[in-house]
Fold these 2 entries.
Entry 1:
Amino acid sequence: MSKNLDTDVVVAGTGGAGLAAADAAASNGLKVIAIEKLPQIGGNTKISSGFFAIDTKEQRAEGLKLTTEEAIRQLNEYNHYLNNGPLTRRIVEHAKETLEEVESLGMEIKLNPTANTTQFAHRDNPYAGGSYHMYQNKDQGYQNIQKSLEAKGVEFLFNTTMTDLITENGEVKGLVAQDENNETVMINAKAVVVTTGGFGANKEKIKEVMHTDRMRSLGVPSMGEGLFSMEKAGGVVIDPHALIHAAQLAKSKVTQKTSSKHLAGFSDNPLTRVLLTPLMWVDPNGRRFTNEDTVYDTVLWANAGYNVGGMYYILVDTKTLNAFTDGKEMEVSKAGPGANTTPGNFVELVNQSIAEETAFKGNTLEELAQNAGFNLAELKASVDRYNQAVDSKDDTEFAKSAKSLMFKVEEGPFYAIKAQVAFLGTVGGVRVDDHLHVLDKDFKPIKGLYTGGANAGGYYEGQSYPAYEGLASGFSWTSGHLAGLSIVEDLK
Ligand SMILES: Cc1cc2nc3c(=O)[nH]c(=O)nc-3n(C[C@H](O)[C@H](O)[C@H](O)COP(=O)(O)OP(=O)(O)OC[C@H]3O[C@@H](n4cnc5c(N)ncnc54)[C@H](O)[C@@H]3O)c2cc1C
């Protein structure tokens, strides 16, 4: 059995990008059907904390005066000019109006005016936090948005997964989907917006683009059907990658809700204090690999961990764990997940991790190397160099600060606790122009095809986390808004 539907615009995926596109099209009198794989709207955008925009009324009230030109310059430089210049400019210019539109749909948004966000990323950029407009009461906000869009005539089809595009002579004429009863739904449309949010849950594809399968995925189960359908229809996939972000204890039990202190998707165990302290870190071969002070910045920390494949080990001895039990630890980072600050017996906590095979123990370094699979010579040499650095307060290997050179690794039993870089879905996708038309290999728009958010390429470069707080979430709404307006313009 298959169903056939006709509409002006069909939107696949109802995260920020899809919702904003549906809103812009419906607000201008077009008939819109929005399909969604899950039983609810929001996608990863609903999990995200805030929206990048500049020159908003709240920023002006705080005296924050990042100009459009300065924001664009910083974004271009952060991306080494590998980003799409006109697209970047239009997003920065239209973020404020999009934010106001999202507010008008019923989402409460409040500026975080400081660099202290839940993420502690890009610590030296005063605007990293000050451009972060935080969503409030998200559950209520998304319910309001759905109601507002329905009132504008948008028809939502939930539990409906896009599987392909309908094409004819190089033009896109609609899409094919499957509903919850596995029935095929054909939706014929004048314009298709594919905003299915990348492919964060597609393990194989993540492995292909990131060259490792050791990282931890957070986010909704997007497999990439939308992105790959656009590629099949002639789109060019240019820059997809996992949005790497901090690290967590391997196999940690995760919280589902973001609070002011704690990000959704991260562990809430006192051992997070060991994770979030610049102790000695080694790679899967037992070799030290970075300046552990990177733990104080969500982005640099994830990057350093990704560099050794996304999984590394925190090396401690019993004396160090006892110091944690006694509350005599180093400054705990507020980056990424944030730490649980309740007291605990850290030897016992690590022993629980050993039982779960997320930590290893050895009475000697030889035994630890054997249990954790380290190369003994690398491990011993690294430990020797590290202990010398702690003694001399001079890390000649990676220039860690003297204040963080506090705990030697010298008295067994020794422990190696696994940490895993996390990623928040993917970003980057098919090449687009600044009106969110999907371009073919000759840089010409594919008629009828539009995208935005995590499926759109050109806004990000490289695998590092974007330059400002809220950039991905803000891009999602703003690019979707612009895609919807392009459709209105093109269908005139
Ligand atoms: C835990 C977490 C925290 C984050 N925090 C931030 C933050 O604070 N700031 C920031 O800038 N970014 C953050 N991000 C990243 C940001 O949320 C995303 O990059 C952005 O929201 C993507 O928006 P989108 O509209 O493209 O996709 P999404 O919001 O993910 O929406 C895509 C929708 O498409 C649906 N879908 C998938 N496949 C199909 C299909 N085949 N057919 C139909 N529907 C489909 C999905 O179910 C989903 O509802 C975070 C991400 C996560 C996971």
Entry 2:
Amino acid sequence: MTSAQPIDELARRLGERLKADRLFRPGDPSYAETTTLWNGAVTSRPALVVRPHTGAEVAAAVTSARESGVGVSVRGGGHDWAGRALRGGLVIDLAGMRDVRVEGDMAVVGGGGRAGDVIAAAAPHAMNVAVGTAGAVGMAGLSLGGGYGPLLGTAGLAADNLLGADVVLADGRLVSTEDDPELLWALRGGGGNFGVVTSMRVRLHPDRGLVGGMAVFAWKEASTVLSRFAELIADAPDGLTLLLEMTVAPGIGPCLVVVPVWSGDPRQADAAIAKVMSLGTPITTSVGATTQKDLWGQFDQSVPQGMHWDLRTRNVAELSTGVIDLLTGWADTRPGPGAGIGLRQFHGAATRAGADDSAFGLRASHVAVEISAGRLPDEESAAYTGWADDVSNALAAVSLPGGYPNFLLSDQKEQIAHAYGAHSERLAKAKEFYDPAHIFTATPLPGRDALNI
Ligand SMILES: Cc1cc2nc3c(=O)[nH]c(=O)nc-3n(C[C@H](O)[C@H](O)[C@H](O)COP(=O)(O)OP(=O)(O)OC[C@H]3O[C@@H](n4cnc5c(N)ncnc54)[C@H](O)[C@@H]3O)c2cc1C
């Protein structure tokens, strides 16, 4: 709880430093818009929201909050399932900073830019960008936490493509990573723990012609499809990156949706995609030559909206028979149609980034398992949360230590302790250096409990 006095003090300071139209309070239409997140289960609400338009305005907001003793959080695309955008008395909403400018093979992206904004700006230049599977996700939130995506095999993680950033630090200074390589290292995977990114330089990749889409397989084929999927990803060329969802599709029921994206030499695409089609007998397919804009448009249509979510994550080194049996068995016990298990392949270019290039913890090939329990707003949460926990606990014995930080909760201490591997100590030092008072609470960092607020 934030008492009225510091909030009044904060409102006064912000009023002195910023235009009145930058500030929203409960009851304002823009307040409601900002505080509505993708995960409808998040109920925390800040006392004030500020929507800055420049780095200097972000600095004024951070300074005002610190001087008033009010906690801050940062909202980008609002897609963090754990609701970390809405922690503290003041939310800094970066929706007013979504500009994207393309300069050769680089995009300069405002701190509130979404993945879809960058895709749209890069498209006329015949360029692609390493992003996740949803256009509405914030480019900074995605990149700072890591950023698995369908171009990962050829382009690496989103974090690997973060070339530089302008950042407002906890003391209110607006700095550039050009003068501070350690800050860039920490931002590439260490989350929003070090400051507010007001602008990013993001590497773009020439569009060589993508081939991708979705192929749906019946659930009765699950064991066969997953075994062949395991063989395929164990041997996949960099150009082929695969995702798989064990889900329930309208009109089909329980099924497996395989999402192949080919981003390598176009002459090898057909052979690679043919292997995906022979994972089983597809019920429906929509795979073909495409552009990033069109393909992501297709992905965005499949993102569920308006639901409440619980999410757990594990990494497995490979899809062994034991792992496959666990996954199919637990998928069969899903508490409702919105609950499912997703697999994200980590391979190729993403495995080759040097340890000193980024804080991201796990560079060995692996499969990230996403256990997502989505329910309708009026459904009881207990069965869904319990299922997600049970699946995660069952997988623990066959998983690698740690997990994808963007999906971890602060009370998952055991996973957090290993999420950054050998980088933990360096990250903890960076946190103490850049944000000694722990103004910014973001994805959980290993180390002292105080870091995992
Ligand atoms: C539908 C959906 C699809 C997804 N797909 C993928 C995927 O394919 N691959 C993947 O890796 N992840 C994926 N994610 C996870 C996503 O990358 C993270 O949840 C990410 O943090 C969301 O960023 P956001 O800006 O939208 O979130 P927000 O909720 O707005 O922000 C979350 C946190 O990110 C930090 N942050 C955001 N912007 C800034 C900034 N400018 N400066 C400093 N800190 C900032 C802050 O700590 C903030 O609290 C997906 C999530 C959803 C809901």
